[in-house]
């Protein structure tokens, strides 16, 4: 996915990314973690989209959710 950034860049992300890579040890124990295949088809499409779309607009994803895909990704 081209819209990712390392978790060290979470604050002040210049490229407007709405999904960022996060290391597992930095995931809040209370965060909702979802496997990619648990998402609806529309949320999966938004998540992997190369366009500047925000996956949080999908009914089953909220800002702060973490998606386990090829890595862990936090939805912003």
Describe the structure.
With 76 residues, the protein is an alpha+beta fold. The chain has one domain. It contains 1 helix and 4 strands, in the order ββαββ. The chain has one helix spanning 41-48; strands at residues 19-21, 33-35, 66-68, 72-75. The protein has a 4-stranded mixed β-sheet, with no helix packed on it. Helix 1 (41-48) links the parallel strand 2 and strand 3 (66-68). The longest helix has 8 residues, at 41-48. The two termini are 15 Å apart. Mean pLDDT is 75; it is low at 1-15.
Task: Give structural attributes.
alpha+beta, 4-stranded mixed sheet, 76 residues, 1 helix
Give a summary of the structure in a few sentences.
This protein is α+β, with helices and mostly antiparallel strands and 76 residues long.
The mean pLDDT is 75
Strand order of the largest sheet: 1-4-3-2
**Fraction of residues in H or I helices:** 10-25%
Cα Rg: 11 Å
The sequence of SSEs as H and E is: EEHEE
Low-confidence stretches: 1-15
What overall geometry do the principal axes of the alpha carbons give? Answer: globular
Count helical runs: 1
Total of domains? 1
User: What structural class do you assign from the helix and strand content?
Assistant: alpha+beta
- Mind summarizing the main beta sheet? 4 strands, mixed
Instruction: List how many beta strands DSSP finds.
Output: 4
Proportion of β residues? Answer: 15-25%
* Gap between N and C termini: 15 Å
**Oligomeric assembly:** single chain
């Amino acid at each position: 996915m081209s819209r990712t950034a390392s978790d060290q860049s979470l604050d002040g992300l210049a490229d407007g990314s709405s999904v960022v890579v996060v290391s597992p040890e930095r995931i809040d124990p209370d965060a909702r973690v979802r496997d990619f295949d648990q998402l609806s088809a529309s949320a999966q499409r938004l998540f992997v989209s190369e366009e500047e779309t925000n996956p949080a607009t999908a009914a089953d994803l909220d800002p702060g959710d973490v998606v386990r895909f090829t890595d862990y990704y936090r939805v912003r």
